[in-house]
Amino acid sequence: MRHDINYTMLFDFYELTMGNGYFQTGLKDRVCYFDVFFRRVPDRGGFAIAAGLEQLVDYIRDLHFDEEDIAYLRSKNLFGEDFLDYLLHFRFRGDMYAMPEGTIMYPNEPIITVVAPLVDAQLIETALLLQVNHQSLIATKTNRIVRAAGGRPVSDFGARRAHNVDAAVYGARAAYIGGASGTATVLAGKMFGIPISGTMAHSWVMSFENEYQAFRAYAESYPDSTVLLVDTYDVLKSGVPNAIRTAREVLAPLGKRLKGIRLDSGDLAYLSKEARKMLDEAGLEDCIIVA
């Protein structure tokens, strides 16, 4: 979570209207129990995986209203001054019991139980659901992909499709909890110690006079970890043959092996099988295919 932003106001407005009501009716200190649970596993997957707890704890620990927040709420002309003064000095007074992140969870069982005075419990509802729903969904989906991959490594590459910055960073975190081997998102790697990986884009290949020159330059720069993107022009007629040529003419004289090729487009099942045949026939049985 960004620490230069006060996320305290990250709640639905009705949390405040209810909180003010609890305050005015004398119920603000009544201790209650809120259970967080879900009703169905997405896509009939059998189970889900808990994630998002660390960011929720960070949010609660930093929960405070500043003068600017109170001025904004006062401008709505809905809340009493006693309630606003209460918020100005607010600190969360409850306890939270939760499944550890990475735990397998099932429908209709408590994931998190919040034990707190009514106002306190009400105010954290939105942020709690936000963090847990998003990260648990990503972790669950990732775990299914990892299981389907049958032991082959799966890496997160979702930042460019995420809905905002936090979704990209915490999505990468959740994917790692779900079993991903790493991420392409450098900020997530820095923040959470997730292994990062990356090779080249089509723009690299197109920056050179031809595909072979692009492959050669990359192999010379990274001889110990050469993975070549082979679908810029034609996978089977150009990309794979040029990758094989690079392995023979550039890497082999250095005593190195081609680590892998990458497919980003087209019929991945068909192309990967045909590419596998070509690589094997060229003596590159250890060359992996990244799809």
Structural description of this entry:
- With 291 residues, this protein is mainly alpha-helical.
- It is 46% helix and 11% strand.
- It contains twelve helices and ten strands.
- Helix 11 links the parallel strand 8 and strand 9.
Quick summary:
By secondary structure, the chain is mostly helical.
What spatial order of strands do you see in the largest sheet? 1-5-3
On the 0 to 100 scale, the average pLDDT is 94
Radius of gyration: 26 Å
**Shape field:** elongated
Fraction of residues in helix: 40-55%
Question: Which structural class do you get from the secondary structure elements?
Answer: mainly alpha
What is this structure's SSE topology?
Elements: H1 13-24, E1 31-36, E2 48-49, H2 53-61, H3 67-74, H4 81-88, E3 95-98, E4 104-105, E5 112-117, H5 118-123, H6 125-148, E6 155-156, H7 165-177, E7 182-183, H8 186-192, H9 202-206, H10 211-221, E8 227-229, H11 235-251, E9 260-262, H12 268-281, E10 288-290
Parallel strand pairs: 6-7, 8-9, 9-10
Antiparallel strand pairs: 1-5, 2-4, 3-5
Helix pairs in contact: 2-6, 3-4, 6-7, 10-11, 11-12
List keywords for this structure.
3-stranded parallel sheet; mainly alpha; 291 residues
